[in-house]
Sequence to fold (446 residues):
Amino acid sequence: MTIKRISQLALAASLIAVPQLGLAQEAEAPTVVPTDSVFIFNSLLFLIGGFLVFWMAAGFAMLEAGLVRGKNATMQLTKNISLFSLAAIFYYLIGYNLMYPLGDWAVDGVLSGLFGPGVLEAVGITREAADDYGYASTGSDFFFQLMFCATTASIVSGTVAERIKLWPFLIFVIVLTAIIYPLQASWSWGGGFLSDMGFSDFAGSTIVHSVGGWAALTGAIILGPRIGKYSKDGKVNPIPGSNLALATLGTFILWLGWFGFNGGSQLAMGSVGDVADVSRIFSNTNTAAAGGAVAALILTQVLYKKPDLTMTLNGALAGLVSITAEPLTPSLGAATLIGAVGGVIVVFTVPLLDRLKIDDVVGAIPVHLFAGIWGTIAVVFTNGNANIGTQILSILIVGAFVVVTSAIVWFVIKAISGLRVDEETEINGLDMAELGMEAYPEFSKV
Fold:
């Protein structure tokens, strides 16, 4: 033990032993946090959490570009920058007010009566004119919630990769981010009927992740598998990604961004208790990811005699999705187990989809849909206020809504412009045919 540490302990002991200094009495006195500080720190949490979740967009782009073949990497990068930008615009134009109604509900608890662009506070706002001076700025709330909306669209992108046309996909993104996602999210986070039922989904295992998963599953079924993925005799032909280093980088970026995803969903940083809760959420989020990765690593070793990197990457992501529905109440041990179950789910559901001939290029359906369902159910194991019946019913309601609405949109787009590229384009790669450029052009002499 160092001299510095000994002196620190001696000082602490002297303070405890000398109550006449008034320090003990002062520590017991209640502290009232100024309203200005609450407003500032809550807004700061939204902003920090928001730009961390924004960084997840880079994670999705890198993960998908690494898991598709080189001839389709530029298309995935184009889709990711485009979908995020479209989500930002259409969530502003329609989605934000549809999700968080500022007026009366047209259908109580189901549909907002207010449509139109989101409006922020004026420049140089004063406390008297702030929309919610006692809580946080509207701008910080809008920024944070937008990132969740964009994440939902990113989930769909990887599943339908390597065979979907660019513009039909982007049209679907517009409908998803402007209407489908905000409407179902309003039922829980906007004070709608699922919230009244007691549905508990802290940061969105169902509201965000399974919604993206349901939309992706519907799209994958309607679109069909890639050419050569499944033989007529039922054999599954693996199609390796082009850059596993890039996919691994994307996973770590997503892992980092998830601290904002879950930590920011505490929605408050204006008290000692709130900050302590945020730190607990960070720790549980991290260990759940670790549990998912290790479970997938060990299970693939046991089942296939060799560990599988892509399964391990998706195992970490499944652990993150699993803990998202309730990252606050579990202990570190419970959070690790919840994440580990998510990793196991990935290892078993990836081949299940192949048996069903549902081609999910990056494994987003096992990660975001199946692990999202598990995470939402797992809430009841650590949160005494959650009810298993309500959790399952809410999952089914959201799932049915997203599947039906997504299918309608996919089929309408298919009828009008078609969804899938032609066979020659798919074989040669979407990069050159659709975009006229390659992600990895060969070096040539000038």
